[in-house]
Amino acid sequence: MKYNEISHFCHPQHKLKFEYNEVPFKCDGCKEVGIGSRYKCSTCDFDLHVHCAVPSPSISHPFYTKCSFQFLSRPPGDKPRYCNACERDVTGFVYHCNTCGFDLHPCCAKLPMVLDDGEVKLYLYRKVSSSCHKCGRKGRSWSYRSACKKYNLHVACVKDMLVENWHELYFGRGKSRKLETRIPSLKNTLQAHHKKSKGKVQKCCEMAGMAVQFVISAVLGDPTTLIAGVIGNLMSRG
Fold first, then answer.
1. What would the pLDDT profile of 142-189 be if each residue is shown by its tens digit?
2. In terms of C-beta density within 10 A (0-12 exposed, 13-18 middle, 19 or more buried), how is residue 165 classed?
3. How large is the average pLDDT for residues 116-132?
4. pLDDT computed for residue 209 by the predictor
5. I need a surface site. Which of 7, 22, 182, 210 has the fewest CB within 10 A?
6. What residues contact 19, with CB distance under 8 A and at least 6 apart?
7. DSSP three-state, residue 133
8. Angle between helix 198-219 and helix 227-237 axes, rounded to 10 deg
9. Which helix (H) or strand (E) holds 109?
């Protein structure tokens, strides 16, 4: 459920207002990158993902049927912990299973099982046998895979791409280029995988680029952030 204004235990001095903005931000709850929908205190420059601002006290997940994850404001214990979805460190808000010891960032825990805009379908898998188009490795973390099984992208790789390109995404916000054109591309990687005709390679790369942007927006905590812009960009080419 979305509220226009909320009070939050981690920022009691001011209320947080819901806003949508395509400028990237670092969530002050889970400490991970975000974009699009957020709850913000403009006075303090304090931001929360929607999933961090309005968390569920406990959740279950289809990948871990025997687990019950509890929302915690900080990771338990004093040892370093990592997210079982993306393999990045857990340093803030987390869903933790006390029985199994598994941890999930709030946005990772709420990743859609299917991303579907009517044209491209991507399915979330805990493990896949095929290699990731970004890193070339298998099994590193959860992955989004296309229905045709041609495109596979680790959730971990998406976050790595964002961290690597954070400076351009954040400080390049005043440039004329749209945000989706500044999202890291797999075009060169994919061209090395395909030896078909030029037209087919171009179409393949366009579809893969579209898939990558869906995954990025989902990992950032807002699966709808880039879809409209990407589809409009592709339609304009026709």
1. 998 888 777 788 888 877 776 666 555 555 544 433 443 333 444 444
2. middle
3. 80
4. 57
5. 7
6. 37, 38, 39, 40
7. coil
8. 160
9. helix 106-109
* Torsion-angle region of 77 (φ positive above 0: left; ψ -120 to 50: alpha; else: beta): left
CA distance 190 to 208: 8
147 versus 52: the higher-pLDDT residue is 52
pLDDT for position 234: 31
What is the Cα–Cα distance from 143 to 120, expressed in whole angstroms?
Answer: 16
**8 A C-beta contact, residue 184 and residue 164:** yes
- pLDDT (tens digit per residue) in 201-233: 445 445 555 566 667 667 767 665 543 443 333
pTM strictly above 0.90 = no
Alpha-carbon distance of 139 to 136, in angstroms, equals 10
- What residues are paired with 41 via a beta bridge? 46
pLDDT of residue 160: 75
Measured over the CA atoms of residue 137, residue 142, residue 144 and residue 147, the dihedral's sign is: positive
By C-alpha distance, which of 222, 226, 224, 163 is closest to 39?
222
**Which two structure tokens, joined as six digits, stand for 210?**
């579209």
In the predicted model, what is the mean pLDDT of the chain?
76
What is each CA distance from 35 to 216, 219, 223, 226, in whole angstroms? 10, 9, 10, 10
Rounded to whole angstroms, the Cα distance separating 124 from 11 reads 33
Residue with tokens 């993306």: 86
Phi, psi of 199 (to 5 degrees): -65, -40
DSSP state of 3: -
